[in-house]
């Protein structure tokens, strides 16, 4: 992942000359401050790749949750307890389309970053804890591992995008702290299962949020709201 | 008083009835929220199924509260979604939020509450089907025509802003087909279909799916008629090609049918059967005696004029037991064995010889007039009666050895039939005969002779009659007939006479294969038999009749003198069953079918094969 992103950056110079000739009508973007034409092309690629990653992460998260629920917690009504229990709920993210469209794209990008950062820690621990489960389910474990890796890649890409869209301004790295680790390690089987259930439930939701936001941003930034 | 009591009773009764009716009602059953759907991830609707209504009008209310809130709300819209539904508008819809929804059923008797349903709009998105499905057949130049399918996303879904990303799927089929052909179209709102059957009417449908949601239902069918692409010219070309290929197929079938056998034999050559070395049965059958004999390394047959000296052979047969057969040698007889000892050891295939001890003892020791004591393979000829100047014609056809002892029939004993040597058994070189067979015949003859002698000592016929066997060797190149010429011995017992035996001498063999037999004038016989004066000799070239089986009566050509003699002799014969039989046969033969007569070089030949067929 790191290599890929650096390759992208390195190709900027190469594309500069060709893009001067090729690039014609594209959405006028106020977000490339230097006015370099190549900025748009690479941004489009960055966004395309980001959307692909976020879409993939949510798909994996949804599958992982469904498998876990079916296998361990089906019919036990854990959902009733998993109300308002995600650690990222404190982050004031838009709750519907109108709110999301009203928010500025920079803020929206920042929100995406915050959510992504908030999940670094939980994903890491999720992998270790799922591995430690007795009868570690392979499907769930492999998905957890991949989600963790993709999430890291997406975070890097998003930081690059932000660097292009909003260069120069580096905001404080705000994110929600996850404190659910002790719950994952509890001795009580039921409590532990619920902790996992809750974590996976929140992961599914937040990955969907990120995916939705990035698609909104892509259509807005790259295609001028004309996807 | 009594009226009051009566009315009281009636009242009470009515009261009881009312109470009973009232007891039939009950609180409503528990409703059940069975489905919640959002068509565009901005609004959603929930539907419930009411429980038993308890016989009373029931009021349903839907209440909910959201995740992170404590306020309980009631359904904002019971109408839009239809009966027993609740529609949540945009204002009331939050994404990534769990709704806890319950339905209350209330009637006069009571109320009941459904189980709460936890709904997150994020995961219940099911859009409407795409709209404006249009079909168009496009005919680009230099390319095959194709069907261009276009559609629009459902009206409510916001794809432009990216709020929802839709993926499409189309399916089509010819009108009468049973199976749909499905194609995934991705995120594009158009599709090109290339593989179409011209002249068919196609039905097309499309549906869509949000990036993380459910597939919509299929859109209503759109139909289009594909124009027939084939021009008349194409059809003509195909008809022509079909006709041409049919003709070619028929020609091939005909050729295979005609030449099938030869082709098969070419591919699978027939396995050759066991063959006697140097002997070819097919040549034998076809009458190619020359080729056959040449395989043996034989000389030409029939012998040419040069071979006349070869043919001066005769046998002296005496009825006296002491008399020995004196085989005559031909001078220039080349080839195996004049004498038993001269047998070519190398060329012994199938040919027995009198060298074989058993045969030798039997034959050579018996001095009887055994006509079968042949040393000369050429012609075995039986000395005939005085009148028996027989000329026989070589009928250079198949070899067969048949003979008969006529006098056997007189004795009543069964006439033995010389063993019929199959052509295949004749592996001797021409003009050599199968000595072994001869010897066998001789032995059998001897036995018969002995019997005959014993039975009728008075007759000296023992030695007289000999069955002459005639072997005919394939000589000519003539194909065709497998005629067997017979040398006659036919003599019957009637011919037995005390006269001294006559010898018939083979005078010569004509070029066309006719044997000329000379009546031997002298006792010593004419050895050389060089072309004697034909005038003094009588040529027996005519077959008068066939007697018994396989005995030809040859007649002197010019005259019927001998014929008369023969006939008389026939009549003199003591009647015997077989004699009668022979007469019958003769009579039948006298009217031999004319078609059995063969004309060859002025000589009449009867084809014994005809007789054979008629006999058997």
Automatic annotation (TrEMBL), chain A:
Cellular component, GO annotation: extracellular space
Keyword vocabulary terms for this entry: Disulfide bond, Hormone, Lactation, Metal-binding, Secreted, Signal, Zinc
Domain of life of the organism encoding this protein: Eukaryota
Segment forming the signal sequence: 1-28
Pfam families, sorted: Hormone_1 (PF00103)
GO molecular function annotations of the record: hormone activity; metal ion binding; prolactin receptor binding
UniProt key word Protein biosynthesis: no
A Gene Ontology BP annotation from the UniProt entry: female pregnancy
Location relative to the cell: Secreted
Amino-acid positions noted as binding Zn(2+) in the UniProt annotation, renumbered to this chain: 55, 211
Family to which the UniProt record says this protein belongs: Belongs to the somatotropin/prolactin family.
Subunit structure: Interacts with PRLR.
Function: Prolactin acts primarily on the mammary gland by promoting lactation.
Protein name (record): Prolactin
């Amino acid at each position: 992942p790191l290599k890929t992103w650096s390759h992208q950056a390195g190709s900027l110079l190469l594309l500069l000359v060709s893009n001067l000739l090729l690039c014609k009508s594209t959405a006028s973007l106020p977000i490339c401050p230097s006015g370099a034409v190549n900025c748009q092309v690479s941004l489009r690629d960055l966004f395309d790749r980001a959307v692909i990653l976020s879409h993939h992460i949510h798909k994996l998260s949804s599958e992982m949750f469904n498998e876990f629920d079916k296998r361990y917690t089906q019919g036990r009504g854990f959902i009733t307890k998993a109300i308002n229990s995600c650690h990222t709920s404190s982050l004031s993210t838009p709750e519907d389309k109108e709110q999301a469209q009203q928010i500025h794209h920079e803020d929206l990008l920042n929100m995406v970053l915050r959510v992504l950062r908030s999940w670094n820690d939980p994903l890491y621990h999720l992998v270790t804890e799922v591995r430690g489960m007795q009868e570690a389910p392979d499907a769930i474990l492999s998905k957890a591992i991949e989600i963790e890796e993709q999430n890291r890649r997406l975070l890097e890409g998003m930081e690059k995008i932000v660097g292009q869209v909003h260069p120069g301004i580096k905001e404080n790295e705000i994110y929600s702290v996850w404190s659910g680790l002790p719950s994952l390690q509890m001795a009580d089987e039921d409590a532990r299962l619920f902790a996992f259930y809750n974590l996976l439930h929140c992961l599914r939701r937040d990955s969907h949020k990120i995916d939705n936001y990035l698609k909104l941003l892509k259509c807005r930034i790259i295609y001028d709201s004309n996807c | 008083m009594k009226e009051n009591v009566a009315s009281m009773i009636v009242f009470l009764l009515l009261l009881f009835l009312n109470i009973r009716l009232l007891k039939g009602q009950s609180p409503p059953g528990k409703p059940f929220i069975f489905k919640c759907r959002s068509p565009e991830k901005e609004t959603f609707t929930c539907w419930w199924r009411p429980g038993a209504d308890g016989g009373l009008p029931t009021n349903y209310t839907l209440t909910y509260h959201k995740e992170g809130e404590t306020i309980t709300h009631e359904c904002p819209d019971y109408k839009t979604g239809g009966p027993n539904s609740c529609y949540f508008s945009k204002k009331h819809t939050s994404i990534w939020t769990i709704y806890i929804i319950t339905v209350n059923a209330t009637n006069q008797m009571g109320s009941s509450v459904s189980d709460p349903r936890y709904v997150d709009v994020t995961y219940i998105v099911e859009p409407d089907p795409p709209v404006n499905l249009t079909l168009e057949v496009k005919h680009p130049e230099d390319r095959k025509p194709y069907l261009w399918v276009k559609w629009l996303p459902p009206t409510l879904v916001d794809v432009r802003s990216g709020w929802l990303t839709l993926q499409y799927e189309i399916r089509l089929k010819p009108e009468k087909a049973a199976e749909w052909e499905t194609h995934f179209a991705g995120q594009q709102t158009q599709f090109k279909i290339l593989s179409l059957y011209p002249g068919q009417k196609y039905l097309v449908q499309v549906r869509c799916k949000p990036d993380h949601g459910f597939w919509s239902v299929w859109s209503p069918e759109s139909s289009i008629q594909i124009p027939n692409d084939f021009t008349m010219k194409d059809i003509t070309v195909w008809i022509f090609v079909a006709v041409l290929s049919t003709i070619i197929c028929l020609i091939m079938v005909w050729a295979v049918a005609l030449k099938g056998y030869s082709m098969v034999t070419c591919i699978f050559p027939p396995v050759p059967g066991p063959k006697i070395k140097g002997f070819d049965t097919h040549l034998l059958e076809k009458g190619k005696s020359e080729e056959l004999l040449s395989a043996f390394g034989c000389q030409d047959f029939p012998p040419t004029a040069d071979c006349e000296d070869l043919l001066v052979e005769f046998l002296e047969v005496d009825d006296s037991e002491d008399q020995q057969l004196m085989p005559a040698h031909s001078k220039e007889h080349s080839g195996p064995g004049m004498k038993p000892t001269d047998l070519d050891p190398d060329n012994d295939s199938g040919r027995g010889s009198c060298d074989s001890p058993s045969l030798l003892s039997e034959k050579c020791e018996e001095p009887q007039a055994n006509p079968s004591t042949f040393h000369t393979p050429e012609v075995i000829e039986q000395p005939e009666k005085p009148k028996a100047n027989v000329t026989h014609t070589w009928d250079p056809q198949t070899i067969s050895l048949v003979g008969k002892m006529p006098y056997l029939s007189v004795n009543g004993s069964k006439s033995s039939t010389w063993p019929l040597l199959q052509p295949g058994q004749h592996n001797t070189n021409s003009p050599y005969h199968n000595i072994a067979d001869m010897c066998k015949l001789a032995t059998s003859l001897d036995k018969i002779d002995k019997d005959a002698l014993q039975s009728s000592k008075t007759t000296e016929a023992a030695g007289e009659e000999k069955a002459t066997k005639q072997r005919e060797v394939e000589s000519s190149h003539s194909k065709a007939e497998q005629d067997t010429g017979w040398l006659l011995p036919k003599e019957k017992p009637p011919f037995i006479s005390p006269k001294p035996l006559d010898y018939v001498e083979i005078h010569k063999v004509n070029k066309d294969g006719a044997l000329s037999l000379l009546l031997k004038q002298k006792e010593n016989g004419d050895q050389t038999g060089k072309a004697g004066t034909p005038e003094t000799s009588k040529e027996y070239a005519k077959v008068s009749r066939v007697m018994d089986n396989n005995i030809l009566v040859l007649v002197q050509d010019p005259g019927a003198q001998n014929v008369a003699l023969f006939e008389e002799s026939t009549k003199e014969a003591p009647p015997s069953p077989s004699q009668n039989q022979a007469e019958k046969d003769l009579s039948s033969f006298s009217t031999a079918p004319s078609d059995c007569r063969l004309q060859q070089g002025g000589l009449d030949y009867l084809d014994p094969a005809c007789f054979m067929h008629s006999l058997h």
